[in-house]
Design a protein that fits this description.
With 79 residues, this protein is an alpha+beta fold. It is built from two helices and three strands. Strands 1-2-3 form a three-stranded antiparallel sheet, with no helix packed on it. Strand 1 and strand 2 form a beta hairpin. The model has no long low-confidence stretch (mean pLDDT 85).
């Protein structure tokens, strides 16, 4: 059973708030790509963060993070 967008966003917001130790956060949906990943913007203490949600059964998140780290090491701005 798939979650509705609203339920998914509420669960993700709760998780992100707990991660930052905040009572509540507001996530702004960003345009996505052709994958199952969903991207959101979080602004906290004048810093901007990108939050990615991806179903583990459909997306290889570890590889995504590994590529992100390589790009950053090369000086390329990456999420």
């Amino acid at each position: 059973m798939e979650l509705s967008f609203e339920t998914h966003l509420n669960q993700l917001s709760t998780w992100v708030a707990a991660f930052f130790g905040l009572p509540k956060v507001e996530l702004l949906a960003l345009s996505g790509d052709a994958s199952f990943k969903a991207f959101y913007r979080l602004v906290h203490e004048q810093k901007s963060y990108m939050v990615m949600a991806a179903p583990p059964a459909k997306e290889k998140v570890t590889e995504f993070v590994d590529i992100d780290k390589l790009l950053i090491q090369c000086g390329v701005r990456a999420p």
